[in-house]
Design goal:
Layout: H1 3-32, E1 37-45, H2 57-63, E2 67-74, E3 78-84, H3 98-115, E4 119-125, E5 129-136, H4 139-151, H5 161-171, E6 177-182, H6 191-200, E7 202-209, E8 221-225, E9 232-236, H7 240-263, E10 267-272, H8 277-287
């Protein structure tokens, strides 16, 4: 992709996702995710109804009338976006490839965080850490993140959620709001690493999937290529046993994702490529 085409694509995503974050998500994001705690703001005269526990006795003694301490929420947060860039993200049969939706969701969340003056970082992962951008503030930083999401070429086509979570725990020492965006077609071995990471961070798994992945249609004998392993094979989709086996494997993968994230106290969002991720995210924010 040449520079002109890339900038045009970045601008298109910025216009769409910034409008969403400005008018829809920023308020919901602000109320859904809390700061690190309460910080001292000022001292003012006691008013009827104030909590007596907030009285500043030193100032009260000095002026011979009651004064109270005023605290406000320490709002500044760090958002870490974790985006799956493995081979299976390049699959799509409806309106868009999964990777396109992953990019739009990440951009919308990033602009929502920017509205709240929060820092945003990015981890692109496959079965290894492909790219790490440390958290920073500002529009130019968000645009860099969008550029990487659009044009980054992964070295590996496989997925390892556990490795990505281990890396998150190693680089983020303070609490962060984490959105892991993936189809979660991965080895079912990430419960322990998610449990460790979720003790420190507020983690949400956003599963992006294509309707064709849910079940295998009867198309006779079809030449297929595994997007993650590159393995080519002839598959008899006319066989009921083959279709049932595929659907069972798919449901087990989705079930593991759902059960593991819930067990670890992490959030879950499921969105199909042909559904409105806006509706899904808004519903999730409001439910928190």
């Amino acid at each position: 992709m040449d520079t002109k085409e890339l900038l045009k694509k970045v601008r298109k995503i910025e216009i769409k996702t910034r409008r969403l974050s400005d008018h829809i998500f920023s308020g919901e994001y602000h109320t859904s995710f809390k700061g690190r705690g309460m910080t001292f703001s000022e001292v003012r005269q006691y008013q009827f109804g104030d909590d007596v526990r907030a009285i500043d006795w030193n100032v009260t003694a000095k002026y011979n009338e009651p004064y109270v301490k005023v605290f406000e929420e320490e709002r500044e947060l760090t958002m870490m976006l974790m985006a799956d860039v493995s081979g299976s993200e390049s699959f799509g049969t409806k309106n868009a490839f999964k990777r396109d939706i992953v990019t739009e969701i990440a951009a919308t969340l990033a602009f929502s965080a920017t509205q709240n003056n929060d820092k945003i970082g990015l981890i692109l992962f496959s079965d290894q850490i492909e790219l790490y951008i440390p958290p920073k503030k500002g529009k130019s930083h968000v645009l860099r993140i969008i550029r990487e999401l659009i044009e980054f070429k992964a070295k590996s086509s496989r997925t390892d959620v556990s490795q990505a979570l281990k890396f998150l725990s190693s680089v983020m020492k303070k609490k962060a709001i984490v959105f892991m965006i993936s189809d979660f077609f991965a080895h079912r071995d990430y419960e322990q690493t998610l449990k460790i990471a979720s003790k420190k961070h507020d983690i949400t798994g956003i599963r992006v999937y294509d309707p064709r992945e849910v079940s295998m249609p009867n198309l006779g004998i079809v030449h297929m290529v595994d997007a993650e392993t590159g393995e080519a094979m002839l598959v008899d989709t006319g066989s009921k046993a083959v279709r049932v086996s595929y659907e069972k494997h798919y449901q087990e993968t989705v079930g593991y994702f759902t059960e593991t994230f819930r067990k670890c106290g992490s959030g879950i969002v499921n969105t199909r490529v042909d559904e409105s991720y806006v509706t899904k995210l808004l519903g999730y924010f409001k439910s928190r």
